[in-house]
Amino acid sequence: MSKLENSPIRIKSFQFACDIVLFTRSLKKQNEFELASQLLKSGTSIGANVREAQRGVSTKDFKNKFGIALKEADETKYWLELIEATSNNDCRILIAKCDELMKIMVSIIKNS
């Protein structure tokens, strides 16, 4: 097992994706299919791009993939804020986790 497989960003982004999957299931039960779909796509894309970045062929590729992951995280935060503003769902914990991921990714990009 490589050190990449145990990296905090990889673990946290995977757990966040799991949280998003579970949350979107509850949104679908509330008939919020469109918002659930948008959130599911962006929220699970973060971890997928983190994994791709960690297999980057160059520093430029690595930074580019993390940049994409960061953009997906920002989009995810938007959907979470929209859901919270338009429904009875409390998204504060997921928003905080998303903010944490974004801070980690910004640090990784800056230090690469």
- What structural category characterises the helix and strand content? mainly alpha
**What about the largest sheet?**
none
State the shape.
elongated
Order of helices and strands: HHHH
Q: Helix share of residues? A: over 70%
- Determine the mean pLDDT: 94
Output the number of helix runs: 4
What is the alpha-carbon Rg in Å?
14 Å
Separation, N- and C-terminal Cα atoms: 22 Å
**Strand proportion:** under 5%
Low-confidence stretches: none
Protein name: Four helix bundle protein
Pfam family, one: 23S_rRNA_IVP
Overview of this protein structure:
Pfam families: 23S_rRNA_IVP. This is Four helix bundle protein. It contains four helices and no strands. The protein has helices at residues 8-29, 33-53, 59-86, 92-110. The longest helix is centred in the middle third of the chain and has 28 residues, at 59-86. The relative contact order is 0.15.
